Amino acid sequence: MERARRLLCQLQDHIREILIAARNRGIGKFAEVAGVTSADTIYHVDRISERAVLGWFKSHWPSHWPVELVMEGTADGEAVTFPSGVPVAETRFKCILDPIDGTRNLMYDKRSAWVLTGLALQRGPGTCLADIRVAAMTELPTGKHGRADQLSAIRGGGAKGVRAESIDLRTGRRVRFRPRPSRAVDCRHGFASLVRFFPEGKALTAQIEEELWRELYGTKLSGLVFEDQYISTGGQLFELIIGHDRMVGDIRPPVFSRLRLAATDTCHPYDICTSLILTELGGIVESPDGGPLRAPLDTTSPIAWIGFANPRLARSIRPVLRRLLRRHLG
């Protein structure tokens, strides 16, 4: 698993370097729509990263570790394996990958996006998020950044097994740092939010969130709890991992269902595949009903999730949030 971790980090380094080089060459088509799949809208910048991924696997993935690759941007229902042509049934691993989580941030040079990768032992169609054994995430920085962060974890290693490095983009020098989720016992004077960065379902989600804070902390809420609508699930996890945010919840799938809206722009398994890093650090990532995330490793399943920086926060917020979700969403 340690070798697998190194490989995933090398892959993500490669993607970051390819994208930075493309930006430095002045490619201006990052924001052009290149296609639409059942998973998401695909932009030109996505196509650059997808080619980088496929080329890297072809050249660098160990042939004695046959792997199935599940990636945003591959044709719907198409099985991609390495070495090429190996039947899925004969693969040893299943790798789920989002080459750019937060594409809109990156293509407008607004905020960092992330490469997200999770590696599980192959169990066929039943392979799910809970089977991921190695996870890695690498920052795709904006043009004005001089460094980028990379974090990885192996299941069961705990906080000591999480590796976090800050990479100098000019020299390549790597400096270790210790990520530490918040130890706060409540969300007063801190960042916490429910995801609502698209118009659909925004009003209902905001209503649930406002009621949550009122029940927990009273009616005088101005300046008490702050929000950060980071348009990237990986970015949201990162903010929890390093102690910036105390709670993030993405309840778009049940909100859309309640409003009878199509579950289009939601979190998918490739977006949340690095939650292992937060949980190894002592944080919590769970479904809104308090159970584990067990969605299959595919590109289409809608995922609702709640992330807490620590167990004490979860214990204080979870009962109220679950009651409100039952009241509003059934």
Topology:
Elements: H1 2-24, E1 33-36, E2 41-43, H2 44-60, E3 67-71, E4 80-82, E5 93-101, H3 103-107, E6 113-121, E7 132-140, E8 147-154, E9 163-168, E10 174-176, E11 190-194, H4 202-217, E12 225-226, H5 233-241, E13 245-250, H6 252-258, H7 275-280, E14 284-286, E15 305-308, H8 311-329
Parallel strand pairs: 3-5, 11-12, 11-13
Antiparallel strand pairs: 1-2, 3-4, 5-6, 6-7, 7-8, 8-9, 9-10, 13-15, 14-15
* Outline type: globular
Main pleated-sheet profile = 8 strands, mixed
| Strand fraction | 15-25%
CATH architecture assignment of the largest domain: 2-Layer Sandwich
CATH topology of the largest domain: Fructose-1,6-Bisphosphatase, Chain A, domain 1
Terminal residue distance? 42 Å
Structural class: alpha+beta
Q: What does the average pLDDT come to?
A: 92
Question: How would you describe the overall organization of this protein?
Answer:
The structure is a single chain. The chain has 330 residues and is of the alpha+beta class. The protein has 2 domains: 2-176, Fructose-1,6-Bisphosphatase, subunit A, domain 1 (Fructose-1,6-Bisphosphatase, Chain A, domain 1, 2-Layer Sandwich); 190-329, D-Maltodextrin-Binding Protein, domain 2 (3-Layer(aba) Sandwich). Helices cover 31% and strands 24% of the residues. The protein has 8 helices and 15 strands. It has an 8-stranded mixed beta sheet with strand order 4-3-5-6-7-8-9-10. Strands 12-11-13-15-14 form a 5-stranded mixed beta sheet. Helix 1 (2-24) packs across helix 2 and helix 4 packs across helix 8. The longest helix has 23 residues, at 2-24. The termini are far apart.
